[in-house]
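Marked as duplicate of an earlier ticket. Keeping the data here for the record.
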Amino acid sequence: MINPFKKFRIDYLLFSMSAGFVLLLVLVISFSSYLYSSRELVNNTSRYQRALLEELNKQLNILFENIEQISLTASRSLEIGELRQSSLTAYDQFQKKRTLVDYLAQLTYSTPSLHSIDMYVPYLDEPYILEYAALKNDLELKKQPWYSVIEGTDSAWIGERSINFRGKPVKLISLARKIYSNAGQYQGVLVIDVKASAVQGILQGQADQGNVSRVLLDSGNRWVAGVGEFTRDTSMNTYLMNMDSSSGYKQVHVENSSGQSDKYLMSWSQFYNSDWLLIEITPWGQITAGSLRVAVVLLGIGLLGAMTIVFFAIYVARQFTKPVSLLLQAMNHFALKQELMKLPMDYRNEFGSMFNGFRKLTERVNVLYDSLRKEYRRKKEAEIAALQAMINPHFLYNTLDQVNWMAIEAGQENISDVLELMGKMFRIGLSNGEKFITIQDEIIHMTCYLKIQQIRWGEGLEYQLEIDESLRDSYVPKLILQPFVENAVIHGLHGRMSGKIVVTGLQEGDDLIFRITDDGVGIPHDWADKQKRKTGGYGIRNVAERIELYYQHPYGITICPLSAGGTEVTIRIRLIAHKAQLEERSA
C-alpha cells in the first residue's frame, strides 16, 4: 500500500486532508441531523395524527349513530303493510303512499346531513317520488350496483357513490336497512342517503392539512368515504397488512402514475365497538420537509465553514511549505562552481536553521570539490609523468645520434639505418614533453619500428597501413601503437620465417578505433595472468594504464585471437580533432 505522506506534496496533502475531513464532518452532521429530526418528526406527527383520528372517530360515530337512530325510528313508524291490503281503493292507496313519502321527506328536512330517503317496497304498482324522498318497487333495488352489499345482511353502509341530482353529480353515503313486520315478514328496504360532504367535512378537519388523505373503511375494509389524493379506486388491502393494534402507524410505499414508488406515513385508529378504520395517509416528504430544510441549512453553513477552513488551511499550508519549496528549488538548482540560489535570511526558526545548514553545506561541498580536483590533477599528472619517464629518457636520443655517426664512419650502413630510425623514434617519444601527439607522428614512430624489424627479417616481414587520411591531424596519447606492433613481431611471429601485420584506423561517431592484426601463432591463454606480473609486458600495460587515466570507461584495449590464426588488438579512444580540445581537457 502506497503511503501518501511519502508520495505527494505536503501542501496538497494538507489541503486535501483538511478539506476532506471538514466535508466529511459536515456531511455526517447534516445526515445525522436529518435522520434524527425526521424520526422525531415522524413520531410526533403520528402521535398527533392518532389523537386527531380518535377525535374524528368520535364525531363520525355521533353522526353515524344519529343516522342509524333515524333509520330505526323510521322502520318502526312506517306502516308498509297497509299498502298491500286488497280492500284499499286506488285513491286510498295513493294517500297511503303520499303519507309515507311525506314522512320520509320530513325526516330529510329535519336532518341537515341527509340528502334523501328512499323506500323500496315489493309488489308496488306505481312508485311515488318526491325530490328528497321516494317510494319505489324493490325490483329497482336489485338493479343497483351496491345491492350485493345489503343482500346478505339486515343493514349495511354503502360507500361513497355519485348520483345525478338536478343535472349535477352529487356524492352520497347511504345506510340501507331491511324492514320487517312484527310477525317477521319482509316489507322492504329503507335507504337513507347521507351527504358525502358531511362526512368529508369531518374527515377534513378544521385546519388545512396540506396533502393529507383520510380514508374511512368499514369492517370489510370497503371504502366508505375519503378526502385527499387517494380515491375509491385505490386498493387499500396492500397497506392494511400487519396492522395488529387498534391504532398505530407505519411507512408504506404507493406506486404513482409514472410507475415509481412514493413513500407515505400511514396512521390509523379503529372505531369504538366496531371494526371500522379511520386511516390518515401523509406524504413522507411533507413530514420530513422541515428536517430536510434544517439539513440543507446545516449543510450550507457547514460548506461555508468548510470553505473558510479550507482557505485558512491553504494559507497555513503555503506558509509551512514555502520554505521547504525554496529549499528544494535551491537543492535542484545547485551545481558546482555556480552561484547559489538566494534563500531568505529573515527566518529565525527551524526553517532558518535549515537554510543556514544548506548554505554551509554547499560552501563545504565547493571547497571539498576544489581540493579534490586539484589533488586529482596533481596525482594524474604525476602518474602520467612517471609512466612517460620510464620510456622517454632524453639522453638515449643523444647517445644513439653519436653511435649512428660512428657506424657511418665504420661503413656499417644497416646499423646506421637502424640507429637513424631509432633516433626518429626517440625524437617523437620526447616530443618536447607533450602527452599527446598527432596520428601522423604516431604512424611515423610505429613505421620506424617496423622498418627496423624489416632490416632484421629481410623480405619475410610485411606490414600494411589502412588509416584514414582525414584522421592524421587528430591527436592521440603518444606511443600507443608501437608496443602492440612490437608484441606482434616478438611473440606472434616468433619462430617463423614470414609474417604480416595490418594496422587500421577509422572513426566511429565521436570515437577513434585502431586495430592491429597479425597472422602469427595467436595470443596464449595465460596472457591476462602475464599482464598482472610485475615483469614483462610492460609496454602493453603502460598503454592500458594511460588510456584508463586519460579516458576512463568505456574506452580501453581489447585483445582477442582470430579464428583463422593470429591476434587482433582493438584500441578505442575518444576522437580529439583539434588542439583546442586538448587545452579544454587540461583546463
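See parent ticket for discussion. The CA atoms of residues 14 and 161 lie 70 Å apart.
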